[in-house]
Design goal:
350 residues, four-stranded mixed sheet, N-(1-d-carboxylethyl)-l-norvaline Dehydrogenase, domain 2, alpha/beta
């Protein structure tokens, strides 16, 4: 498939967006990089984008633009990819909507369920969802540490309708230099699989202030994570979500029970985590930034409330995380008893 005629924008070139941008540019695609962190943009302009991979370091010249320069752009894009935080999705979709071709598509390289926000703004027919299996971090402007190579990275893409369109095939081909690509006819369920995997790891690991593998091995914490997984699984079933293969787990290896939720977390720990992998929530807190609470337990708690009932462990972990956001709690290993108390509280009859 010829791709050199496509104009592609990537808005938000942090750890994920930057990793993808470097791969696409190195593949010879026409990519415009847009970011809101001034120091990062200036570093990319001056030294290129440095990506430290497990076996090599790549430095890629990047045509980087400051966010404010979007107003200077005139030629529309065929594909807009965004890897901004979930809470920034709406305004980024509004920002790029005038620069999206009538038949162009907007793709969220994000965790969470941002597909609905995007569809409200650019239209469902121009929305493509993406599920990510990648581990990377960015602490220094212009420098990304990518902990899994493109060959070991996994993305799933799909339209909201489930239709296999020409644009969907183009998106799959465009992203192929960055990951193994799976095209799905049920992107909502596919994104729920990642949500089920993310919800038990993001906030607990962030609250403990340690790498993910260390958090999961902390005495008393894995049962907390598993309870959060089971709450997310139960909610998905009630919403009519189809359990499907994800993160490299084959259909034949999927149990027909909430054990699958635990298996998804196990897969994240075994295939997408290194000893120093820090979850996105913790990375944000360490940078003094707001974390994506809305994308993980925040979403589980809100959807559970809509249907009635509660997700008590997710809710208590969410409340602890909100205390971090307010500056009342610091992410440290000594928070472990607070997390275990959340589980005990959920088990104790009212």
């Amino acid at each position: 498939m010829a791709l050199d005629h496509l104009k592609i924008a990537i808005v938000g070139t942090g750890a994920v967006g930057g990793s993808v941008a470097a791969d696409l540019i190195r593949a010879g695609l026409d990519v415009t990089v847009i970011d809101q962190w001034p120091d990062h943009v200036e570093a990319m302009r001056a030294q290129g984008l440095t990506v430290h991979l497990p076996t090599e370091t790549q430095v890629t010249p990047v045509p980087a633009l400051h966010l404010c320069q979007v107003a200077e752009l005139r030629e529309p894009f065929d594909i807009v990819l965004t890897a901004v935080k979930t809470y920034d999705t709406r305004w980024v979709a509004e920002l790029m909507k005038p620069l999206l071709r009538p038949d162009g598509v907007f793709v969220g390289l994000q965790n969470g369920m941002t597909i609905d926000h995007v569809a409200e703004i650019v239209g469902a027919e121009r929305t493509i969802g993406c599920v990510l299996g990648i581990a990377a971090n960015l602490r220094t402007p212009g420098v990304i540490v990518r902990q899994v190579s493109p060959a070991d990275t996994w993305f799933s893409v799909g339209t909201l309708s489930g239709e296999r369109t020409e644009r969907l095939d183009q998106v799959a081909a465009v992203l192929a230099p960055a990951a193994e690509i799976v095209v799905t006819d049920d992107i909502r369920s596919a994104k729920w699989m990642k949500l089920i995997a993310n919800s038990p790891e993001m906030l607990p690991s962030g609250l403990l202030g340690v790498p993910l593998l260390e958090a999961a091995r902390t005495p008393g914490i894995r049962p907390v994570m598993d309870a959060m997984s089971r709450e997310a699984y139960a909610l998905a079933i009630e919403l009519g979500i189809t359990m499907m293969p994800s993160l490299g787990i084959a259909a034949d290896d999927m149990p027909d029970s909430d054990q699958y939720a635990l298996d998804l977390l196990d897969r994240v720990l075994s295939h997408f985590s290194q000893p120093d992998t820090r979850v996105a929530v913790l990375q944000d807190w360490e940078k003094g930034r707001r974390a994506e609470l809305d994308a993980f337990s925040g979403y589980i708690v809100a959807k559970r409330a809509e249907l009635g009932g509660s997700a008590p462990v997710n809710e208590q972990i969410l409340r602890l995380s909100e205390r971090v956001e307010r500056g009342e709690l610091v992410p440290v290993p000594e928070n472990a008893p607070l997390l275990m108390a959340a589980l005990e509280g959920a088990r104790t009859p009212a």
